[in-house]
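queue> holo job accepted (S-adenosylmethionine)
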Amino acid sequence: MHYIRLLRGPKLDASNLKRPLISILLTITTDLGDSFLYPDEPVDLIISVENPTGQSIILDGDPPPRWTAGMRCLDVKVPIKPHFKKDDVTCTIRIHPATQTPPLGVLKGSDMLPWSVARGSFASKGLIMPVSVEMAKGICAPVAVRTLQLDSRSQPQDQIDIDLEEDIGESIARHIWDAGAVTASFLGDACSTKEGIYDTLLMREDGFNVLELGSGVGILGITLAQVIGRAVVRGHTSSKATVLLTDLSEAEERARSNILRAEAALSHINPNGSAVALQYEDLDWDEGKHGKFGTLVSARPWDLVVLSDCTYNVDSLPALIGTLSALHAAKLKYPGVEEGAKTFVILATKPRHSSEQALFGLLTADDWQYNILKSIPLPKLGEEDEAVDIYLLEKGKKMS
Ligand SMILES: C[S@@+](CC[C@H](N)C(=O)[O-])C[C@H]1O[C@@H](n2cnc3c(N)ncnc32)[C@H](O)[C@@H]1O
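queue> job finished
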């Protein structure tokens, strides 16, 4: 998949009152930022600029910006209606490929799932993730927002919009990655029925605790919180859930902002109070492998651990698997947890290099069993297709 990325926050130039402009410098790259989109056919982009009441403030008439093979960045000047002064410009800017279906600025999760994509459609050739950004009184927010819409084939009231802030600029940290986006879409789809949520998440009725490792912007944990929140409202489960995001401290600020956004969405799903607690705490695997956990990680036994795109750096695999095993060991010591209880892990990866296979040897050596839950092909525009592999790991054995 490719991503429209803002290389800097859009800037308003209102010096010419007859023709104020918003200038946008963008690029279209892969999640890792290691290659630019090189399409066979030019890709037209739609840019919308709407005020808080949803009215467009763009001066129509200019041709759409176009991305062609060989480009590394695109500098777009969007004319807005005359006589806007800086203080008047409070708006949402959305940038979206013209070929993808609306709503603008939103990627539908179903477009990432091959079983719901029509053969020959644009989605089947490779997606480009749209982006949006807020501008208040002519000043752009320091973060971009990605919106993933789950269950986009159902009634609007049943759809879930996952809004995730990420960094603006060339940094590859603190943004969305393919494995997370595809797995979030898969979980949203698989957990839309009562049977699906129990079979996929191996959920318990008497409270359910989910921990995300290397959460980055928090895509998997936040998706699960919203999916469980919706399941409670639909009567698919009555289980209360805790979802804890963890990462290195540099990820904390973005994760906490995204938790605030998700909490607003959860209270919208269930105005009577959400059944899901969403939290963040730092957890460095180099400490986790020794069983050194913070207060929130230590507070409860974890039924399900989730992680996406955390296994590409082979050097950190021993610490990561050590942390999984230490979480399982801590669970067994927790009062009331039966001897031989299992820990389940959903691990998603987009294989990038054969060295990543070391994961499986390390898992086996530490008594983890693994099975592939789903391998989801991911078409890539102008390049070879990729795939996201989702594994279910388990450790522990129930005594009969
Ligand atoms: C490629 S990102 C994936 C982020 C997120 N899971 C997603 O799919 O969007 C890898 C994440 O692992 C985290 N990470 C790397 N080494 C870590 C360590 N030693 N302890 C904890 N987190 C670590 C990084 O901070 C980063 O957020």
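queue> The CA atoms of residues 11 and 139 lie 7 Å apart.
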